[in-house]
Design brief:
Bound molecules: cytidine-5'-triphosphate
Largest sheet: 7 strands, mixed
Strand content: 5-15%
Number of helices: 25
Strand order of the largest sheet: 3-4-5-2-1-6-7
Distance between the termini: 87 Å
Radius of gyration: 30 Å
């Protein structure tokens, strides 16, 4: 890469970095920009996270810089770790002192702050993350790259500066980070580094699940997530972290009838959806849409391979997976469950006749998530048969048009029945109970089936008629 010192200087010549530079000069402290900020400069990825390493006490530098920055600056000192963080406007700046020991921010080992820059670079995760720009005086903008990070950046390679067994034992999360950077940046993992991940994979279990899921989410959010999942699978990390996914692997054949490999199918669906949305949870829904296929798989002599109810069983498997992965147990999870449970419905519509009532029911069940559901369903078409694909796409257009028409006409997307339980109780003077439930359900069904329009008067009349059949009579209110 032909990037000159002048270009580097031009990039880092900002008031903030100049202020850090002057402060360090005044304190006679060597200091460098390092890590993601330097890497991302060469990759033309703008970054607001800045890592600064000082040869000496990083926290002292952070305190002095905070005083100079004045207002709108927030300093947090992590005394035990010898690190500090400054939040200033949109920037987050981490300060550390150069160490001989491993970099790890959450290491239980004592902090040894007596390293040289090169000691510090050596203990970082990857060569592309170990490059540094000097911030001092006339060395401002000088690149220090003793482990050839620049060459690896050009050759798109993830490689550890040290023997990978040491780098990964310093912090096993780095095995996930290697995969994540490969997926995010479209890089390859260097063979020796890759072999070390495979060798050390069991050590991932000592890392907290929160940190692991953080990396997993970044893999899911990368432009082509399958790159990450294939690497996780090949290194054996996936089997440890997510056995439900590896169970999707393989395609069995019986009496000449096969089924698709659901692992690779799932990854194509995930890649398809990644082209349509940056939404993490919609991507999670794609990853999990067929998660119950292995446990529901049966061989039926008449039908061949079946996966009955895999959508509903999948929906039920999700809370356990989310709990284990320390993912949120809130409406995000419910959203993923809902999409997994409904993921076959639009396709069934496409395959059967697209009746108004079926469309109305789908709108009612999906509510505001109908568009996401349609996106997921389209992403689920991974057939290699162009005729089939064309037919699906055409029919999908019809379903989408119908969805629009019915929604405009009947507004069932978020519909609350126009006559509710309270009104029914009042009209008939009866308490909550079985009858109320029956009447409510009958009204809902009649609207969804198109027997009556989604309006109060029609629903009221229908309720009276239905109640008559149940020998329920309205109470006469005084004055009526
Ligand atoms: N680092 C490390 N080992 C880790 C985590 C981080 O060596 N387990 C070092 C790397 O030099 C990394 C720097 O600390 O570049 C900053 O870490 P972090 O902010 O987590 O990652 P970035 O590389 O900045 O990338 P991103 O912002 O995409 O996470």
């Amino acid at each position: 890469m032909n990037i000159s010192r002048e270009e580097i200087v031009a990039h880092i010549d900002t008031p903030l970095l100049r202020l850090i530079s002057h402060t360090a000069d005044e304190m006679q402290l060597e200091c460098y920009l390092i890590g993601g900020y330097v890497r991302d400069f060469f990759l033309y990825r703008p970054s607001k996270d800045i890592d600064v390493v000082a040869i000496g006490k990083g926290t002292d530098l952070a305190e002095a810089v905070t005083r100079k920055l004045g207002k709108h600056t927030h300093l947090t000192l992590f005394k035990n770790f010898g690190t500090a963080q400054i939040k200033h406007k949109e920037y987050e700046i981490e300060f550390v002192g150069a160490r001989k020991e491993s970099y790890r921010s959450d290491s239980r080992k004592p902090i040894v702050e007596d390293g040289t820059l090169e000691d510090d670079q050596r203990r970082r995760d990857f060569t592309i993350n170990a490059m540094a720009f000097c911030l001092n005086g006339d060395r401002f903008g000088e690149l220090l790259d003793p482990f050839n990070g620049m060459q690896d950046l050009e050759e798109l390679i993830i490689r550890t500066p040290l023997d990978p067994d040491i780098t990964f034992s310093d912090d096993p999360l780095r095995m996930m980070r290697a995969v994540r950077f490969a997926a995010q940046l479209g890089f390859d993992i260097y063979p020796e580094t890759f072999d070390a991940i495979t060798r050390n994979r069991d050590r991932i279990t000592i890392v907290s699940m929160e940190r692991v899921s953080d990396e997993l989410n970044k893999i899911i959010l990368s432009p082509k997530p399958s790159i990450g999942f294939i690497l996780l699978e090949k290194t054996g990390l996936l089997e440890i972290l997510f056995p439900e996914l590896t169970a999707l692997k393989g395609a069995e054949t019986k009496e000449g009838v096969g089924h698709k490999d659901n692992f690779y199918h799932t990854l194509s669906v995930l890649d398809n959806i990644a082209r349509e949305t940056d939404d993490l949870w919609l991507r999670w829904a794609a990853l999990l849409h067929d998660i119950a296929k292995p446990v529901t798989k049966r061989w039926d002599p008449r039908l061949g391979w079946t996966f009955h109810n895999h959508n509903f069983i999948g929906e039920k498997m999700i809370p356990r997976i989310f709990r284990r992965m320390k993912l949120p147990q809130n409406e995000k999870m419910k959203y993923v469950q809902k999409l997994v449970s409904l993921h076959m419905r639009p396709m069934q519509l496409v395959e059967d006749e697209v009746t108004d009532s079926a469309v109305r029911r789908l709108l009612f069940d999906a509510g505001d998530d109908i568009d996401d559901l349609m996106t997921l369903c389209e992403a689920d078409i991974t057939s290699k048969n162009p005729v089939k694909v064309r037919r699906f796409i055409t029919n999908f257009k019809i379903v989408r048009r119908k969805l629009r028409e019915i929604e405009e006409k009947d507004r069932v997307r978020n519909f609350q029945p126009p006559v509710d339980g309270n009104e029914i109780m009042q009209v008939f003077g009866i308490p909550e109970g079985r009858e109320i439930g029956i009447l409510k359900a009958a009204i809902k069904e009649a609207i969804l089936d198109g027997v009556i329009p989604n309006e109060h008067a029609a629903a009221y009349a229908f309720m009276l008629e239905k109640a008559g059949e149940m020998n329920l009579n309205p109470v006469d209110k005084p004055g009526q």
